[in-house]
Design brief:
elongated; ABC2_TM; 369 residues; cell membrane; transmembrane helix; 66% helix; alpha/beta; 4-stranded mixed sheet
């Protein structure tokens, strides 16, 4: 059995690595995706343009403008001369927000009366507008604390000082790069595995494989191990890039990370074999892989928390292997999570692998009938 398995594994690796296009797909795009997505896939809002309509001639209006201009969030500050310019800027999306300072802004501050600001936001970019509104509110609150009324009331105000655990400087790449380790490994592992059986059918070697001395479970193992080896190679490259290129701290155990990665890649390969067993051509296999991969990314907690999803949709995420491995890889990198938590997240991966591999084996047996 071991000789037959070794021959099938070598054959699968050669089928992938001897193809120049296959080698290019396995090496080039994943590295490019890691480098590009690490900088581009971010929910931070920076380098945005803001317009200010200052109708106040006092000191506090100018102080507010200087504080907004000095914020690293905003790239350029445009001074408007009228409300019509503000409307044109928002309508044409040349500014994401506009701040109107009323004529009595400084006078009200000196008199200890409430001083209002009007902030006009581009609702077509709702998420970015909400974040920009939060930045402007923080700037306004900091200015209010330095006004005469703010200093008098300072003793009666309870101040909050946030302390961020695991990522003190809120470096977004510390969150993004571990996510990419899991998601790109899903992409490569799923596509390589999904194409394996479909490629055999197109080349006319599937029937030869079925009548060979190899048994069903040997075929599954032989088709399972090469994508897992390729996936472990990519995960290793991503870990090295995360630590040495992006300076992401690795606080946890590599042993736990790689141990759980084996079960994760096993579940991914199981899904790929199930898709491949259903597909008759490589085109169908690729479409099937993407049909699973896009919902898997959206339902994994990669971009939005699972808790924010509707109650009826949250149970669907339980069959998504990416959901569990994201918890592991981020926890090992940033939190040094214990063995018990890794085991809790690895058990569902093992169950997914068992179910998908059993389903693939059942489909193979039906082909033989």
């Amino acid at each position: 059995m071991w000789t037959r398995l070794y021959a099938l594994i070598v054959k699968e690796l050669l089928a992938v690595l001897r193809d120049p296009k296959g080698r290019a797909i396995l090496i080039g795009p994943p590295i490019v995706q890691l480098l590009v997505f690490s900088y581009a896939a971010t929910l931070e809002v920076r380098n945005v343009d803001v317009m200010i309509l200052n109708r106040d001639s006092g000191h506090w209006g100018q102080e507010l403008i200087e504080r907004i201009d000095g914020s690293p969030t905003f790239r350029k500050i445009e001074i408007a001369g009228s409300q019509a310019e503000v409307r044109v800027a928002i309508d044409n999306q040349t500014a994401i927000a506009a701040v109107e300072i009323g004529p009595d802004f400084s006078r009200n501050i000196e008199a200890g009366a409430p001083a209002d600001l009007q902030v006009v936001l581009d609702g077509r970019r709702s998420n970015a507008s909400q974040i920009v509104a939060g930045y402007l509110s923080q700037i306004g609150a900091a200015l209010a604390a330095e006004t005469p009324a703010g200093k008098r009331a300072g003793a009666d105000i309870v101040s909050t000082v946030p302390r961020n655990w695991f990522n003190p400087n809120l470096t977004y790449q510390w969150f993004m790069v571990p996510n990419l380790i899991a998601s790109i490994a899903l992409l490569i592992g799923l596509i390589v595995t999904a194409l394996s059986i479909a490629r055999e059918r197109e080349l006319g070697t599937f029937d030869q494989l079925m009548v060979s001395p190899l048994r069903i479970h040997e075929i599954l193992i032989g088709k399972l191990i090469p994508p897992m080896m390729i996936g472990l190679f990519h995960i290793t490259v991503y870990i090295l890039a995360a630590v040495f290129l992006f300076d992401v701290p690795l606080r946890g155990s590599l042993f736990l990370l790689y141990g759980s990665a084996i079960f994760y890649l096993g579940s991914v390969a199981g899904l790929g074999l199930f898709i491949s067993a259903l597909s008759m051509t490589q085109q169908q296999a690729i479409l099937g892989a993407f049909l699973f991969m896009v919902p898997a990314m959206l339902l994994s907690g990669f971009a939005t928390p699972i808790e924010n999803m509707p109650g009826w949709l949250q149970p669907v995420t339980l069959v998504n292997p990416l959901r569990y491995f994201l918890v592991i890889v981020k926890g090992v990198f940033l939190k040094d999570i214990p063995l018990s938590e890794v085991v809790n997240q690895t058990i569902p991966l093992a169950l997914i692998a068992a179910v998908t591999l059993s389903a693939a084996a059942w489909l193979f047996r039906r082909r033989l009938e």
